[in-house]
Amino acid sequence: MFLHTVFIITLVVLQSCVSYARVAPDYITPCVGLKSACLKKNIQETIPRFVKGIPSLAVNSTDPLTYDYVNVELPGGLKIEFKDGVLKGLRNCLVNEAKFQNNDADVELTCNVTIKGKYKAQGQILIISINGDGDAKLKITDLNLKIKLKFIDNVRDGVTYYDVKDYKVNYNINGKVQFALTNLFKGNPELGQTVLTFLNENWKLVDAEFGKPLVDIVIGIAFKNVQKFFSNIPKDELVVL
């Protein structure tokens, strides 16, 4: 009888440990009352660790953020293929603002990012026709991101999770964009360099014409990780009201 009782107690203790085992990484600290100052501080401290990835939650690295292949047709019939893409710099983003109210979150970041990869492009950029195939590097400084997240409570197996129902990102470049593209015109490096100089001098026009579709693709890749993160961590490990 004594051994039976000990066995039952052991099962209860083990079950309690399983039920209340912390899922979130140790560096995730809930903000009491969801106060903006706490949220801003926590997000700032979390970013450099989060972007490395969380294998236990199937959250991949976002710095570097890699994507094998992107194929997009932009305004004016410009067709771009981008392979072996790598984005770096998110770990150093600065948090300007963070708010959470009524299951809606607003976060504003300032980042400097670099994107590298192999490209193929054919079509027209502004007033110039191109036919390029080579290496690409884009450097963006003072990229301002305003992020809105809409959450819903999702109860699974008696545990409440925050699921990202929708998100919206607006961006503005307060610094500049620098392009480094090889072989913009196949077999004509002089013309390619002339066009590259034109693109760098008129980066604002290029961004206004083509920036949003490309930024949306990268953000879509990154937010898959954000959605995985929230869908796997219980709400009570993130929020203390």
From TrEMBL:
GO terms for cellular component: extracellular space. GO terms for biological process: circadian rhythm. It comes from the Eukaryota. Keywords: Biological rhythms, Signal. Pfam families: JHBP. Belongs to the TO family. This is Protein takeout-like. It comes from Papilio xuthus. The lineage of its organism: Eukaryota, Metazoa, Ecdysozoa, Arthropoda, Hexapoda.
